[in-house]
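Q&A FORM
Asked by: J.P.
Topic: structure of Radical SAM protein

PROVIDED:
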Amino acid sequence: MTPHYVEPLFRPPAEAGSLIFQVAYGCPHNGCRFCGMYKGVPYRLRTEEELAAEIRRAGVAYPRVRRIFLADGDVMAIGFDRVHRILAELGAAFPFLSRVSSYANGSSIARYRESELEALRGLKLHTLYVGLETGMQQLLDRVGKTERVAEMVESVRRVQLCGLRASVMVLLGLGGRRYGAEHAARTAEALNAMQPRLLSALRFVPVLGSPYPEFELLSERETAAELLAMVEGLSLERTVFRANHNSNPLPLEARFPAGREALILELKNALASGRLDASGPGILPAEL
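REPLIED BY: S.T.
REPLY: Here is the structure written out as tokens.
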């Protein structure tokens, strides 16, 4: 029996092959003016009894499942005890389980002790997807994300020191024309401090309109130039980088540090080619 899903339901592209369980509906924060994922969805945490029964039924139907993704936004916000019980329930229901992943905010991770993170790792928690968006604190404040850059950096470092994997997401173009240069520089600084194992760059698409009054949408060429500036500022020791989401003007992938120079060259060649739209945003995902 397939788990019961309440739309909208989101998961990272890398979790396409994972069985999904919704621990909650919506996002406990839901104030970011750049994100339309859960707008209009009242946050509701499912009862433990309801979720446990669903896990057991799915375990009977799909006993060989190896990968599970816990939805919706920021599952770590529900606290250690509840996450621990959910992971224990999953381990009992799925004997071949190898990894469990979820979205997480830095402020939620910060409430966990190292011993608790290690205990969750022992129950197959594997990857936490963290939206840094930008390393520029002023810009985070402007777009309504209540996270602190320093806390997100520390949370990612702690997660990885405890043996978990962090997949960090940044948003190209979030700074518009006014803040673009500082957005690229400060984001590279934050990523260098984090040293995430996985890094994804997505292009900001203003589905909710302008996230702040002075915002100006970057052209396709300006977006690629911002990514180049960001990559040139990166000094990563062991990171898989992807910018292959359909929002991006160029599908890119590299392993740092070995692939850094080739990635820079590819971006420079694309900028010099004249094939990127310099006067408009190019084709956005809604138009594909």
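FOLLOW-UP: Residues 59 and 93 are 5 Å apart (CA to CA).
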